[in-house]
Structure formats: C-alpha cells, structure tokens
Structure prediction request, 349 residues.
Amino acid sequence: MKIIKTSQSRLSKTDFSNLPFGRVFSDHMLICNFKNNKWQTPEIVPYGPIEMTPATQALHYGQSIFEGMKAFKNDSNEILLFRKKDNLNRLNRSAKRLSIPEIPNEIFLSGLDQLLHLDQNWCIKDDNYSLYIRPFIFASAEYIKACESDEYKFVIITSPTTTYYTNDIDVIIEEKYTRAASGGVGFAKASGNYAASFYPAKIAKNKGFTQIIWTDAKEHRYIEEAGTMNIWFVIDSKLITPKLTDSILAGITRDSVIKIANDLNIEVEEREVSVDELIEANKNHKLQEAFGTGTAVTISPINSITYRDEKILIPKKSNPKSLEIKTIFQNIQRGRYPDKYSWVSKLSV
Ligand code: COI
Prediction:
C-alpha cells in the first residue's frame, strides 16, 4: 500500500478538551477506488479534500453507505479495535442492498490497521476518549444517469471523540414521519436514511426534544429505533428491545448488550414493542428504564418519552441495568475485562 505522510501534523494544535462530536479529524485517511470492475490498491494520504466533479453520482442519487466504529487505547498503550469484522460485514450488507461492490476483507481490515497505526497518537489513553472511525463508500462516477455507478470510492477517516449527547435525552414518539418501511433500506447504513430523518428531527428539536422515537411505517404503533440509536426498555425487570426486521439497523452495540445481559442472567426479549404496552407499563409502574445504544452514543439513558400530550419521566434508579451493562461493555472495549466473545483485536502492524 502506498502511504503518503503529512508534513504538517495537526495533532499538537488540536484542543482535546474541546471535541464536539464529528468536527475534528486525524491527520490521515485511507482511499481506495473502484474502477474497471475492481477495487484498486488502497492509499493512505493526508486528510483533506477529495476532488470530484459536479456530476459525481452520489451527490445526485445518494448511492452512499457508511459505518461507525471505535478504537481505544488500553492501559499498555496498545490500540484496540472493537468488533471490526462485524462492521465490515455490515458495510458489505449495506453495499449489497445499495448495489455497491462489496469491499474485500483485506482492503478494509489491513487498511484500517495501517491507518490507525499511523494516527495512533490521535487515540488518547483516557476513559473519556475514543477514536471514532468512519468508513464509507460513495458512487464516484461522473455520470448523472439514474443508475448504479461504475466507479466508487471507499474512504476511512477517523475522529477523536468524547461523548455524543452532552445533555439529557428527551424523545418524542413520532406518528407522522417514518424512518424506514419494510422492503426499503432501513436495515442498511445508507446515507439517505439519515438525510430523511433530519427534517422530522428538526421539528422535534424545535419542540424541545433531543430526538424522535421512530415507529413502524404502517400503523405507527410499534417502536423501532430512537434517533440514530437502537432502543431498549426495562419493563418488570426484563430487558426488551424491538426485534430486528428489514427496517431496523442491526446495531453492533445492540448485539453486545444482548450477550452481556445474558451473561448477567438478565432476561432479554427481542420482540415487537407497542406504544400501548409502554404507556400501560408506565401506568402500572413497571417501566423501570429506557436507553439507547449505538457506536457513537454507546449506552445512553433516556430521560423522558413523550407520547402525544403525555410526558413519561423515566425513573432514575441508583443502579440501573443499563449502567451495569455499560460498565462491562466499556471494560471489554478497553481490554480490562475477559473478552469471551473475541470482540477486541490489537493492530496487526
Ligand atoms: C453510530 O453510532 O456510529 C452512528 O452511525 C450514528 C451516527 C449517525 C453518528
């Protein structure tokens, strides 16, 4: 692989005490082009603008997908990646659905390791920090016919990060707009899923909410996700999350929470969760917790859920299950807890 190192690192000028999510980027990026029917040799180059023409296909038709993953420094200063193969597999599931050529394992895995090795000092050894990794693929052909592209760019950028949500999470159950419908691309990390969510999220924000709880497209009766997170409830001491369908993203944090909860002998149910059930559980004082999970947010408690005119305040427990699970989750990510599922890997360079 060709590696061109930056001659001017931005590291010493970066204010690590002020890192709003997704605004600061490490020195290098990986780029790999797909053309002539094949992925070419990747390159690592200084982070910076990517040249493209106004006719670049992704700008017109949104043929574009991404992933979110994280790296951590352990107590011996080694970089640990969390569930990288699961992100690769999900990227390729998204690629298939968006008719994008799948990325070969070697390009993704070894490219990522080399990029992280080069920018290792951007990954801070401190429990408040992680290095957020954003792999993405977009249609890069100069061609505005509405058809799949014959050229793509696979890029990985990284961004030092602290917390995603800095305030309480107050959500409102959405009954008009829909994030994803059956048969669509809701299960994929398609860029357009996020674009379509911004307008309804803005309306919710203007009413004082952090995010929306998405409900099913057909009846708006069943809960699907919350903002960009998978959603969870503790009802009557059971951990409940909507079961995966083709309109719900198969979160890697979601899957990790299920496994950790099973290990803790916490009963987990993956099934349909209706808005009515939630309201009823609250009425009967059986709704004990609500939280969201995702790579960026990790495991974040929800403060309140609003349905029409009713605001449900989620009880603040002294030792919530979400915190118990989060502590184990983060200790596994940072290499401090037995990694029985082999989720964590060190760099191979
Ligand atoms: C992630 O958690 O990595 C996500 O994909 C959310 C992102 C839209 C910030």
In short: The helical segments are 57-61, 84-97, 105-118, 191-206, 252-263, 275-283, 321-333.
